[in-house]
Backbone:
């Protein structure tokens, strides 16, 4: 239902040169008045065509500058880059610094990510260390959180799974907490249920979805349980500000709100989470399958192929109606808010595609026919 469609742009690669005609003055033997020869209009047309083509070429080059600058010198995943963001740097300045260091592949994509997250004026200056291959969203989150002070903080980005969080924690604690230790704690919700009652209904005894995305201080001498408890405390504080009235009226529990929010996190952009939430609520209301690729992607670890969507499993929302049994990632507060207060629409479908500028364009439809037209456009 939500497949991306990549479009490609064409740009002119040729130009024309204006031709000029020169007429010679002619004088009659008996008349000294100036006689001009008849001039052809063809050179004028050629000149106009040349100007038009030149404008098209220039426009194409300018339009491509931001979106076609794929970085040929990306930093290898086994290397790190230390950069400094000076005071007064604009988003464009920061994009250039990151691009030159091989941290990001496309400056326009970086600017779009910053804009979508609403971080245009909140990126922090200072000294940063990035690993090669760091996802764009994580780079942006790190810059919004600010540089690590004496290496005593780290970022868990929005939409991370338990496995991704375990890796980030292990790196932040320099191996003193291993990924295996963290996973063992995070996949045993029962050991935290006395202190955090909201995890009692966790699917498969897993804390997937509850490890709130945030910047965390490193706890000296901490073990895996301490870090998990730190994240659960943050979740508890964040959800206190939510109003669950609407989802409760629709028959959803608090845990089901978390499940829905995790799908919204993976399917929506920063500025349309509530619209995407409305699609899912409308489908639930008429007992229509959610048909979210993201829930299958969670199981297989990547974008699903058509045959993957036909495989039985509790997280296949094409074959199973209703919500999946558990969250598929840790949603941000905005996704949780969207799940609690969706837009009121008649939409049953949405579709997104690459807009050719490092971002995504979304199309919402009320009927299947409209949805197919959006896909074909």
Residues:
């Amino acid at each position: 239902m939500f497949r991306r469609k990549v479009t490609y742009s064409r740009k002119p690669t040729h130009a024309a040169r204006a031709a000029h005609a020169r007429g010679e003055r002619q004088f009659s033997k008996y008349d000294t008045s100036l006689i001009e020869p008849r001039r052809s209009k063809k050179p004028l047309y050629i000149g106009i065509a040349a100007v038009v083509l030149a404008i098209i070429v220039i426009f194409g080059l300018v339009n491509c500058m931001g979106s076609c600058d794929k970085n040929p010198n990306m930093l290898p995943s086994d290397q790190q880059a230390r950069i400094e963001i000076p005071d007064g740097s604009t988003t464009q300045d920061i994009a250039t610094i990151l691009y030159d260091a091989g941290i990001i592949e496309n400056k326009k994509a970086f600017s779009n990510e910053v804009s979508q997250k609403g971080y245009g004026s909140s990126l922090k200056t200072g000294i940063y260390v990035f690993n090669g291959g760091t996802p764009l969203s994580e780079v942006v989150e790190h810059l919004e959180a600010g540089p690590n002070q004496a290496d005593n903080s780290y970022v868990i980005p929005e939409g991370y799974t338990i496995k991704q969080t375990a890796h980030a924690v292990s790196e932040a604690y320099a191996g003193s907490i291993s990924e295996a230790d963290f996973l063992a704690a995070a996949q045993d919700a029962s050991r935290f249920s006395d202190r955090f009652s909201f995890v009692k209904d966790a699917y498969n005894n897993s804390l997937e979805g509850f490890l709130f995305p945030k910047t965390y201080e490193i706890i000296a001498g901490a073990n895996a349980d301490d870090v998990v408890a730190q994240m659960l405390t943050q979740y508890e504080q964040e959800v206190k500000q939510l109003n669950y009235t609407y989802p409760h009226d629709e028959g959803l529990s608090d845990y089901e709100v978390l499940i829905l929010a995790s799908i919204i996190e993976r399917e929506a952009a920063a500025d349309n989470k509530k619209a995407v939430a409305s699609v899912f609520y409308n489908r639930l209301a008429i007992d229509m399958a959610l048909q979210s690729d993201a829930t299958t992607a969670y199981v297989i670890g990547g974008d699903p192929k058509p045959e993957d969507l036909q495989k039985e499993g509790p997280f296949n929302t094409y074959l199973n109606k209703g919500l999946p049994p558990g969250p598929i990632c840790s949603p941000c507060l905005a996704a949780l808010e969207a799940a609690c207060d969706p837009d009121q629409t008649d939409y049953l479908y949405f579709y997104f595609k690459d807009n050719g500028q490092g971002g995504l364009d979304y199309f919402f439809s009320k009927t299947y026919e409209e949805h197919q037209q959006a896909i074909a456009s």
Remarks:
- Residues 2-37 have pLDDT under 50 and may be disordered.
